[in-house]
Amino acid sequence: MARVSALDTFRVPSFGMIWLSGLIWHLSRWGVSFLGSVVLNDLTHSPRLVQLGGSLLYAPLLVGGVAGGLVSDRFDRLRTVRVQLAVIVPLTVTIGALAATDRLQVWMLYLYMFMVGIGWVTDMTSRRAMVFDIVGPQRMGNAMALESLSLSSGAVIGPLVGGTALKAIGTGPSYYVLAAMVAVAFVVLLPVRRPAPVATNRPTTPARPIQDLREGVRVLRSNRGVMSILGVTAIANFFLFAYSPLVPVVAQRLGAEAFMVGLLAAASGMGMMTGSLVVARLQPVRRGLVYVAGVAGAMVVLLGFTLANTYWVAFALLVAVGVGGGLFGSTQSALVMAESPEHLRGRALGLLSMAIGALPLGMYVLGEVAQHVGIAEALAIHVGLGLVLHLAWITRHPEVRRITTA
Hints:
The protein is mainly alpha-helical. It has a single domain (about 10-190, about 225-400), classed as Growth Hormone, Chain: A (Up-down Bundle), CATH 1.20.1250. The chain has helices at about 15-45, 45-75, 75-100, 105-135, 140-170, 170-190, 195-200, 210-220, 225-240, 245-255, 260-280, 285-305, 310-340, 345-355, 360-375, 375-395, 400.
């Protein structure tokens, strides 16, 4: 099979517009996460309640992942992505108006973040399956690395936009900026036409949502490769990525002003971009090994972050954490789809989103511990335990380490 160059996938019709729309969506979503953490910290001054906001943002991944995958397998994926973007715009404008008039309350922000999380589940399961429909199996690995690049770019630019806007125009107008970004993501998708394979891959039998869901989960549970991947994903999200809502709090405690708070929140995204670019450029065959090594390396460096007592040391360590996260994130969807039957790929991505749904649980647990023993101490305990469990899992379930992709 011919080797695909790093940017060759952009030559596929419509992929560039889908990728650009996804990039803008990720910018806004990471902006929502950043502003939510800052506003919650200002309103509550509680690590527990800041982490709870992050938990609600990611909670739909846990409770709705497989359902989102079923929607992806049953309905028009392009239309589904457009609808979720159209719904998020007025919700974000409403939150901005409440903040601008000093009527924003904690419960309102929690509800909004949960709704954005539902949008993320819908987008992730439908958009990534749609990308596969368009690019095909030969370019799948490269396309998923580029998808991860858009996510990591959002993790960089979203907090920077949020921090800059927060300092320049205040909280309410900052949410208007995010709403405008989501609207642009919607507009970018308007010229895209539904990929032809989507119609041919749909079942011709009458829809049986509950039965189809059960069948998909049953088949995928017997797939040792998929289950090995999902175990690594669950551990990484519960123990590694749960720290992110606390980064703005750490930055403020280190004396950073609004833009520098956003810059520290963007540090891991800078590393993720690097890791994603490495995968997109080198296209390693042993992606399963890259996947598990990225998690282990990021956990080791994050343990060092707990000892950082200056802003720039913390920044450098979070960049390094992000590199490992980029290696992990740019390979996981490609691995899942490579190991899944074609007609179950949407549901396999739904199971992946449920494994990612361990993240809100990890955030909640970390917030509870941090409330009692302090942020640095709680993070060291949390990540240290995660590293031990990760090594134990890949020893007991080595299938993921052996997976290769073209």
